[in-house]
Amino acid sequence: MLSKKTKYALKAMIVLARNHGKGPMLISTISEQENIPKKFLENILLELKNAGMLASKKGAGGGYYLLKPPDTIMLSDIIRLMGGPIALVPCVSLNFYEPCEECKDELTCGIRQVALRVRDASLEILAKTSIKDLAEKEDSLIAMHKKTRQKSHAK
Question: What is the pLDDT of residues 28-37, one digit of tens each?
Fold first, then answer.
């Protein structure tokens, strides 16, 4: 399950992806647009900046902006940074491996075998989906929803 921190990071990154190339955005603007508590967002953006995904500019016209093109920032990178492992259990994590305390033998553990498949399927999607893809998907869903509402109101 995604933590609130991870969801807020993804939402902020979508806003910044839509604004890419238009200059820095104020924390307060992102906070208001996405209904994210400002203080919480400050910490998230600082963490994303320290990871090299964002940069900031101080003073008038300042704020945060994407340091890399939005099509190069993958969901898996943001999720790992904000929430830790993508794996369901620590014994199948690629970046946060730990043996499970209660496991007698990793090689014969059925839970581990299923968790490996889930991890691989999740990574197949998350490592190939960029923040730009997510913003575009959201935009198309919004447009489709508006059309559906307009048709239902026209009847």
Answer: 999 999 999 9
